[in-house]
C-alpha cells in the first residue's frame, strides 16, 4: 500500500492552480515548524536561565544546539529524499519534531534539554531542504517563484504565531516565564506546544502527491503522469513533460557527494554560489532578532513584557515583507529583490549600530537614551522588513531552482547545511559579542549586508520563468 496520495486528472477547463497552492502550502508546513522553533526559544530563554541557574554561555549552547542538529538533518535530507521520496522524509521530520517538543517540555537538566533541541533541529534541517526542493519540482514555471515563497511565508508565520503564543503564555502565567500554568512553568508550555504543528505537518503530508521527478526516477510513470496533469492543468501534455524529464535524467545516476565536486575549487561553482547565498542570509544577523529578541531589548532597558510585545511587532513586519516578496518575486525577479534588500539592510543595521553605541550599563540594568531607543526600534523593524521582502524569500526560491536536476536535492542539502552552520555561528556568538560591544556587533552585521550586494550582482543569475530542466 503506497503512503502517498495520487490525485486524479482534472476535467478539461478546471484550473489546477488552487490545488497546486494547497500542495505548496502543505509542503511549506515544514517551514512553519522551522519558524516556530526558531522563535519560540526567544520567549523561553530567560525562563530556562532562571530554572536551571545558567548564564549566557550555557544558554547560547542550548539555543544553538538545535542549529547543529539542523545542519545534520539538512545534510542528510537530500540523500534520503533521492532514495525514499520527498513525502516520506516530510513524515520522518514531523515525527522527530513532535518527539522533540514533548521531550523539551520536561527536561531534567540543561544537558537533556540540549539533546532534545538537537533532535528537533534534525527535523527542522530535513524540512528546510525538502520543502523548497519539493515545491520547485511540483510547481509550474510561471508561478514557481510565488509558490516557492510559501516556504518563507510559512517560516515568518511560524515566528509570528510562536511570539503570540509566548506572549499569551507569559501573561497567562503572571508575567514571568517561570510562573506556572496548571503546575507547569510557562517556558515549558512554550516548548511543548511545538508538538501541535508537528502533528498537523504529519497529517498534511498524507494529503499531497509525491514529486513527479522522484516518481519518474523510480519508474512510477503512471503516477507521475497523473500528478503532472493535476498540477500543470488540463492543457498540459504530461507525456511530453515526462519525456523531457526523462531526457534530462537519461545520463544521470543517483547523486552522491562526488557529483558536487569540481576541479581546483573542490566543489562546483554553482554549489559554492548556493553556499554563499545561504551564509550571507545568516551573517546579516537576522536570527538574533528572533532567537534573542527578549534578551536584546532587555539589554537596552526594556522590560520583559514589552520586549515580548516588540517581538510580536517585528514578527508582524516580517509577515508584511514576505507578502510583498510573494507579490513581486515572479514579476520583477529574484536579483532585483535581493539587491534592494541588501541595500536596505545595510542602512538599517548601520543605523541600529549607531543607536546601540549610546547604551549605558550592561545586562538588565542597561539603558538607552529615549531618542536612540526609538531609533533602534525603528531600525530593527526596517531591517526585518528589508530582509523579509528580499533575502528571506529569495534565497529559498533560488535554492529550489538554481541547481541542475541531477544534483538538486543533494546540492540543496549542502547549501542548507552551510546555512544552519552559519546560523549556529551567529547564534552562539551573539551573547558574548553583545556583552563585549553591542554596537560593534551590529556594525559587523551591516558589513555583511553591504558585501552581499556585489555577491548578488556578480554571481547570482536570474531564474525567473525558467524550467528546472534548463538549469545548469
TrEMBL record:
Transmembrane segments: 17-36, 60-80, 92-110, 116-135, 147-169, 189-208, 270-293, 308-329, 336-356, 376-398, 410-430, 442-460
Highest taxon, organism lineage: Bacteria
Localization annotation: Cell membrane
Predominant location category: membrane
Membrane topology summary: Multi-pass membrane protein
CDD domains: MFS_XylE_like (cd17359)
Domain Major facilitator superfamily (MFS) profile: 23-464
Keywords: Cell membrane, Membrane, Transmembrane, Transmembrane helix, Transport
Family matches, as PROSITE patterns: MFS, SUGAR_TRANSPORT_1, SUGAR_TRANSPORT_2
UniProt family annotation: Belongs to the major facilitator superfamily. Sugar transporter (TC 2.A.1.1) family.
PANTHER family in alphabetical order: PROTON MYO-INOSITOL COTRANSPORTER (PTHR48020:SF12)
Protein name: Sugar porter family MFS transporter
Taxonomy of the source species: Bacteria, Bacillati, Actinomycetota, Actinomycetes, Kitasatosporales
